[in-house]
């Protein structure tokens, strides 16, 4: 079966300087790919390239990124806008910051969905209720009528995941979705994202510094260092039996941190 997403030998530059170099990976339907590596190794840049949102100065200079057989790299921005949301969803580190502070959560979710489909507010609220209840958010009406500042950081994050899932994307891009949360809420969000994958069969690219999160969620892992691919393979092989020197060092530093914690 053809992968859902296929990055083939991509090199990404900012202002002519390569920050991701000759990286290749696949994401199969329903698969979770974890992307790890030290700060500045190019993890977020890869996510941005998949969204076609590298911004001024950023460019995929070599290679292709195929999504369902279409090349995202040279896709016109209008086409891209059509698939971002319904096909490729996004969750970021701080969902609250991504929301407008002076409009209710429901109004903003309605607006983002109505950009892609003809829906009524009632339909959006019903759909939100369905998804929220799946992950145990018991009072969807109250949440939808709230302003972002009225919800906790953890709740905003859970709402952000629900909002992305309401369009039932085939692929969810998650950039540090749990790193701003305390550990108990982190565990809850991890459970909920896994539940979303089980319920809707959503594939995910999960960028994180947290090796524990990758172990808990990812089927495969891509390890980056200075924009170069150091390791790529099934989570257990890469993280529990690392052969690459950099991955070994990364895992040793995690163990060291745990011992000294
Ligand atoms: N808009 C930009 N313009 C110029 N350089 C950039 C831009 N965005 C990122 N970079 C550079 O690209 C490299 C990769 O950055 P990126 O944010 O992808 O790393 P990362 O692995 O996600 O880091 P972190 O874990 O700290 O978020 C870094 O050297 C960064 O300084």
Automatic annotation (TrEMBL):
<dbReference type="InterPro" id="IPR003439">
    <property type="entry name" value="ABC_transporter-like_ATP-bd"/>
</dbReference>
<keyword id="KW-0813">Transport</keyword>
<dbReference type="InterPro" id="IPR027417">
    <property type="entry name" value="P-loop_NTPase"/>
</dbReference>
<feature type="domain" description="ABC transporter">
    <location>
        <begin position="5"/>
        <end position="251"/>
    </location>
</feature>
<dbReference type="GO" id="GO:0005886">
    <property type="term" value="C:plasma membrane"/>
</dbReference>
<protein>
    <submittedName>
        <fullName>ABC transporter, ATP-binding protein</fullName>
    </submittedName>
</protein>
<comment type="similarity">
    <text>Belongs to the ABC transporter superfamily.</text>
</comment>
<dbReference type="GO" id="GO:0016887">
    <property type="term" value="F:ATP hydrolysis activity"/>
</dbReference>
<dbReference type="Pfam" id="PF00005">
    <property type="entry name" value="ABC_tran"/>
</dbReference>
<dbReference type="InterPro" id="IPR050388">
    <property type="entry name" value="ABC_Ni/Peptide_Import"/>
</dbReference>
<keyword id="KW-0067">ATP-binding</keyword>
<dbReference type="InterPro" id="IPR003593">
    <property type="entry name" value="AAA+_ATPase"/>
</dbReference>
<keyword id="KW-0472">Membrane</keyword>
<keyword id="KW-1003">Cell membrane</keyword>
<dbReference type="GO" id="GO:0005524">
    <property type="term" value="F:ATP binding"/>
</dbReference>
<keyword id="KW-0547">Nucleotide-binding</keyword>
């Amino acid at each position: 079966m053809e992968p859902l997403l296929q990055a083939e030998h991509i090199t990404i530059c900012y202002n002519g300087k390569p920050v991701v170099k000759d990286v290749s990976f696949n994401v199969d339907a329903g698969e979770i790919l974890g992307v790890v590596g030290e700060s500045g190794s190019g993890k977020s840049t890869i996510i941005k390239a998949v969204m076609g949102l590298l911004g001024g100065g950023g460019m995929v200079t070599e290679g292709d990124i195929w999504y369902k057989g279409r090349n995202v790299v040279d896709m016109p921005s209008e086409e891209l806008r059509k698939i971002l949301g319904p096909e490729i969803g996004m969750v970021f580190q701080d969902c609250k910051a991504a929301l407008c502070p002076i409009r209710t959560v429901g109004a903003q979710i309605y607006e983002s969905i109505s950009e892609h489909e003809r829906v009524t507010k009632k339909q959006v609220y019903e759909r939100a209720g369905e998804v929220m209840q799946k992950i145990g958010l018991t009072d969807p009406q109250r949440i939808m009528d709230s302003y972002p500042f009225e919800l906790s950081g953890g709740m905003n994050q859970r709402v952000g995941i629900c909002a992305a899932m309401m369009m039932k994307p085939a692929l969810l891009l998650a950039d540090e979705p749990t790193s701003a949360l305390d550990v108990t809420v982190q565990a809850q969000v991890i459970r909920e994202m896994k539940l979303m994958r089980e319920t809707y069969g959503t594939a995910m690219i999960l960028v994180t510094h947290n090796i524990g999160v990758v172990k808990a969620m990812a089927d495969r892992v891509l390890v980056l260092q200075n924009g170069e691919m150091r390791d790529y393979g099934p989570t257990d092989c890469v993280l529990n039996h690392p052969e690459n020197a950099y991955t070994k060092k990364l895992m040793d530093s995690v163990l060291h941190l745990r011992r000294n914690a």
